[in-house]
Amino acid sequence: HIPGNAVLEKGDFVIAEITPFQGSITYAAQRCTTVKVGRASDTERRCYDMLIEALDGAMNTIRPGVQAKEVALIQNKIIGRYGYEKYCNPPFMRSRGHNLGLGTIELTVDNELELQPGMCMVVHPNQFTPETGYLACGTHVLVTETGCERLSALPTKLYEVEVD
């Protein structure tokens, strides 16, 4: 969003989809993350850990021949096991990831596109929960011959910034 008059306060979340690019969106990556201003509660940590589990499940599913919908469905299944199944659909979330660059790869439950080596996409189990609101979690991956490769060395975690 463009800068506004809001001032961050202890307890706020900063949700970020960071998309650095070189020259055009064709050469881009994306990182989705959440920063808590102050200390996160046990519930907030538990909900974010759920998203990390969904991200890991998706990354373990990605390999050539797998349909895009399978990557979305495993994320929904994991989040659903925590009791948030009804929140795995719009308006609480849109997709479980997408490509950047040429073409369109949406990680949605109805996309039958088969993944191929060389495809790049952002996998993001971003999710609303009633206890926390919306949380962002995700990373850019490359489909390889045997699975997928994470393209970011930045740890996937709920970041906390101490404030006075």
Notes on the protein architecture:
It is a single chain. The protein has 164 residues and is of the alpha+beta class. The protein has helices at 42-61, 68-84; strands spanning 13-18, 21-22, 24-28, 31-37, 97-98, 120-123, 127-129, 133-135, 139-143, 148-150, 159-161. The protein contains two helices and eleven strands; from the N terminus they run ββββααβββββββ. The chain has a four-stranded antiparallel sheet with strand order 5-6-9-10, covered by helices on one side. A three-stranded mixed sheet has the order 1-4-11, with no helix packed on it. Strands 2-3 form a two-stranded antiparallel ribbon.
Helix content estimate: 10-25%
- pLDDT under 50 segments (min length 5)? none
Q: What is the rounded Rg? A: 16 Å
How do the SSEs run, as a string of H and E?
EEEEHHEEEEEEE
What is the mean pLDDT?
A: 89
Total strands: 11
- What class would the helix/strand composition place it in? alpha+beta
Proportion of residues in extended strands: 25-35%
Biggest sheet statistics: 4 strands, antiparallel
Summary, kept brief:
This protein is an alpha+beta fold. It has 2 helices and 11 strands, in the order E-E-E-E-H-H-E-E-E-E-E-E-E.
Characteristics:
3-stranded mixed beta sheet, 4-stranded antiparallel beta sheet, alpha+beta, 164 residues
